[in-house]
Every structure is written in C-alpha cells, then in structure tokens.
Amino acid sequence: MKGYKVTDVNRMRKIGVACRSLHELKQKACTKLNITNDPAEINIYLLDGSLIDEEEYFSTLKPQTTLILQKPGEKVLTDADLLYDTLRRVNIDFLIAGEKASEFLTENLKAKVAVLNNALNKDDSKTAFSSRDEHPEWFHGLETNCATKEAYLHRRCQDRIRGYLYKTIEQIRSSDVFTKDPRARKQLLYAIAFFKMQLKEDHYFGYYFDRSRAKIEALEGADQLDSSACYDHCPCRLKWFDDSTYFRLFGTMEQSDDVDGVKKRNERNSSADTKTEEEEAEENCPYKIRKIEKKMCIALCNQTGEFRCHGMWNEDKCSYGTHKINPYRSKEELVLFSTWNFDHKIERSRTLIPLLLKLASKGTANEADLIEIYDNLFTIKNLRLVHIICHDKSSHK
C-alpha cells in the first residue's frame, strides 16, 4: 500500500490517500472529497496533465505523488495553465499599470507567444542530452518517472491522442443515436472497442514526439513489425492486454514478456460478476486490428528534436515560415511546446463523429469506414501539428 496526495481540479483542497490500486484510489478519494459520481467516471491526472488510466502505469508512480481528480465535464489545468491564469487574473492590475504594458497584455496575445519563443535561451549545449542525470533542470518540476526526454515526450503525445479518444467516446455516448437506437448502439460499441484496441496496437502514436524515431533512425530494421517488439521507453506493452484480446489478435502467448502477469490480471477480471458492455464489445469486436511496419513509425521532428509548424488546415504549409520549436532544448521550450496543437483538418466533433453516428444509425458502418474514420481521428493523415497562431478553431469549411 502506498500513499498519494489528491486534489480536485480547483486545487482548493488536498487530501492523503493510501491505496493498493488505481480503482481503490478513486473510491477513497471520492469519499473524502464528497464526490458522488461513480468512480468509473472519474479520471486521475498528474500535475503536468498526464492521464493515469491504467493500473500498470499507476503502479510506477512514486509515493506522495500529487494527483488531480477530474469529474465528467471538468477541465484539468496543468501547473503551466495555472501560472498563466495567475499572471492574467491575480497580478493583472500591477502588470498593466502602464499604457504600453496594457497594450502588450491585452492585444494580439497569440502573437506574443512568438515573441516569447524568440526570447528563449537558444543555448544548444544540452539539447542532445537525453537522461535526467545529464540535464536535470529540464526535468525539474515534472512529476514523472520517465528517465529520458524521449520517454517523457513520447508519453505526452500519447496523452494528447488519448484525449481525442475520450472526447470521441463522450460525444458518441451522449448522442441520441447511442441512447435510443439499440442496433446503432451495438455498432458504436464495436467502433469504440476497435478504436481502443487499434490505438494500443499503434502505441497511441507516441513516436510522433519522440526524436529517437526520427526518419533516419526509424528506417533501421525497416522489415520488422513494430507492434511485436516495442522499444524500451514506450509504455504500451502487449502484456497489458487481457488473455482474450491477446489470443484474438495474435493467437499465441509466445511473444509475451510477462505471461504470469497476464494470467493474474485475467483472473482478477474474471472474478467480476458481470462484464461491462465495453468488455463484451471488445471480446466480440468483428473488426481486424492492423499491424504497422516499423519504418512507418516516424517522428514529426528531426534528430535534434526540432518541430516545424505544418500551417493552417486549409494551407499547404505554414505561411509564416518561422514557426519552429525544440522542446528537447530547455524546460522553457518544453512548456511553450504545450501551446502547439494538433489540428484536425476534417473536424472531429463537427464532421467525423456525426458521420460515424449516421453510418451506425443506417446500419451501414463497415470495416473500411471504421478504418477511414480512425485514421482521420488519430493519425497525421488528418492531424497537423501547428503553432498556436496557425490553429484555426473556427469551422473548417
């Protein structure tokens, strides 16, 4: 049993919780914080915004780690978000005392991010360093067990993709099609199960931010299938699958690094009286999971870790030409990198999910449709990594 510090999204109260599992932590935290929601609806985050959604990942956290409890519909603010809000709300009178300061803080705020980027220390002497021991100031304040920069950014990219998955599931479940049409509901549950399993197979595309997967490195051993031998710092492990899913996908346990661990977890799962509809859908999902070739798992940055803006959704490239950043260089650039976004060219909430709901209601959703929607939701076929100035949140027509 380990102890943790738990707070809510408002950070107004912090409690101590001793527990043996993520599920137990949710139950005890809800009781102490007087939260009546079902613990299954609760999400747990680290202070840097990383989502803790699996028991295996939770078990790696150090005792006394501070965790944020999020109820449905609430927004989790990272430490960087809170600092920004504090500067704007708490110290705003002081900061805008002069006319020039007022103009700077209240006009064209997005452009100021570019000013901040240019003002950062461009010292490249530690950019190539990878480990915590080599560049300790880069890791300062990050509540993570990641031993390298590559592992940390890999996980951060996975968190972004997981966020799209959870928003997709939430929009599907809140729709009239899902709640009122039993036939469509079954098809949508299969679609959700397919998205989850395929994302596990694709390691939640963490390699997009991982400079160790820059093109020249990714081409080595290009005849191998990445899914069967994931590289060391990717937290996606085949042993995390339960037995039924593993056997359905791969047919054998020979490639598992922890057969006993899988069996023990499966025994825990089988002790439940009933299976959830999600578990039923995952076991009976008719869609085939695709493997991906190692040569296709390529980062969006170069070998040094520099990213360049892909431009607005309706343009071929960044019209500014100067939008670039290297979060591997310094802690300041790592923080600023959080303002860069993935932008869906074909919009998730306005186009892709309504299309899926329409296909399900008509009973015409097939495997090809699901693969196409999956690619547009989660891959760079439809995602563009963009500077905050180039992120157009208006309707993409």
TrEMBL record:
<dbReference type="InterPro" id="IPR044925">
    <property type="entry name" value="His-Me_finger_sf"/>
</dbReference>
<feature type="domain" description="CIDE-N">
    <location>
        <begin position="1"/>
        <end position="78"/>
    </location>
</feature>
<feature type="region of interest" description="Disordered">
    <location>
        <begin position="260"/>
        <end position="280"/>
    </location>
</feature>
<dbReference type="Pfam" id="PF02017">
    <property type="entry name" value="CIDE-N"/>
</dbReference>
<dbReference type="InterPro" id="IPR039729">
    <property type="entry name" value="DFF40"/>
</dbReference>
<protein>
    <recommendedName>
        <fullName>CIDE-N domain-containing protein</fullName>
    </recommendedName>
</protein>
<dbReference type="InterPro" id="IPR015311">
    <property type="entry name" value="DFF40_C"/>
</dbReference>
<feature type="compositionally biased region" description="Basic and acidic residues">
    <location>
        <begin position="260"/>
        <end position="270"/>
    </location>
</feature>
<dbReference type="GO" id="GO:0005737">
    <property type="term" value="C:cytoplasm"/>
</dbReference>
<dbReference type="GO" id="GO:0016787">
    <property type="term" value="F:hydrolase activity"/>
</dbReference>
<dbReference type="GO" id="GO:0004520">
    <property type="term" value="F:DNA endonuclease activity"/>
</dbReference>
<dbReference type="Pfam" id="PF09230">
    <property type="entry name" value="DFF40"/>
</dbReference>
<keyword id="KW-0053">Apoptosis</keyword>
<dbReference type="GO" id="GO:0005634">
    <property type="term" value="C:nucleus"/>
</dbReference>
<dbReference type="InterPro" id="IPR003508">
    <property type="entry name" value="CIDE-N_dom"/>
</dbReference>
<dbReference type="GO" id="GO:0006309">
    <property type="term" value="P:apoptotic DNA fragmentation"/>
</dbReference>
